[in-house]
Amino acid sequence: MFENLSDRLSGVLDKLTRQGALSEEDVSTALREVRVALLEADVSLPVARDFIKRVQEKATGQAVTKSVTPGQQVIKIVHDELVATLAGDDENAGELRVDSPPAPILMVGLQGSGKTTTTAKLALRLTDRGKKRVLMASLDTSRPAAMEQLAVLGTQIGVDTLPIVPGQSPVQIAKRAKQQASLGGYDIYMLDTAGRLSIDDALMAEVEAVRDEAKPHETILVVDGLTGQDAVNTAENFDQRIGITGVVLTRMDGDGRGGAALSMRAVTGKPIKFVGLGEKMDALEEFHPQRIAGRILG
Ligand code: GDP
């Protein structure tokens, strides 16, 4: 198991003499430990480096409060900075822009990331809590099983899916989804695009064509939160080619430390809207920066 940061820091920092303010040396000693903790939590190296630099600037020279140890004080500064970075300037975590019906939501991501599951989880949330009428459509023409999977989930949660018509291209399906959503009086239609095991040009070209057709109000990238640095590369790629508006991190119920959240936020600047916490349809939660910060620090 990981050693938690406060144990780590109390070991090194509480030996230091208190001189009324955090000296540069105190802070550097502490931040070496913070850096190890971040890397162990799967935060990418450049992001960890930048983060440490910001904390160093904030912490050095700060008066040491009587009520806490220097170690606790550094932890508080690190924690606050983590929360600020994770939250960014997004005041609407957990909200999707779904005005002017029928609002298209494009779901993108690699195969196995949890995209189809997350599409259904979001649809359930939008119908249940937002009282919206939602139509889901699978655009995964290369994997009939994936189309079937969405239909099965739809039945399970009581959300309509676009009937499967074999032989149509993803763009044709997107058009049909829009028509059906307009005619049927739906508030939202969700397009579950195909994924691949890794990013390739054909995948991106296909998603681009669908994006151009649907002009989505939200483009949500679904990423496996356990994949660390790969998650960040995936996010960068999708953001550059497709332009994402938000991220859902899945498998946050696993024992990973969630460092991908920090890297992702820092690298793309795009908000993490929700986290997936299991396979069940209600295992989706709004993103809480505080919780992830606590988890990263251990
Ligand atoms: P897709 O290929 O990206 O559409 O992935 P799927 O939606 O088919 O999900 C792949 C597997 O991951 C399925 O077995 C899902 O039940 C599972 N899964 C999806 N999200 C989560 C999550 O947040 N936590 C856990 N533990 N499993 C998940």
UniProtKB/TrEMBL annotation:
EC number, as in UniProt: 3.6.5.4
Enzymatic reactions: GTP + H2O = GDP + phosphate + H(+)
Keyword RNA-binding in annotation: yes
Keyword line: Coiled coil, Cytoplasm, GTP-binding, Hydrolase, Nucleotide-binding, Ribonucleoprotein, RNA-binding, Signal recognition particle
Domain SRP54-type proteins GTP-binding residues, every copy: 271-284
Membrane topology: Peripheral membrane protein
GO terms under biological process: SRP-dependent cotranslational protein targeting to membrane
Family per similarity comment: Belongs to the GTP-binding SRP family. SRP54 subfamily.
Official protein name in the record: Signal recognition particle protein
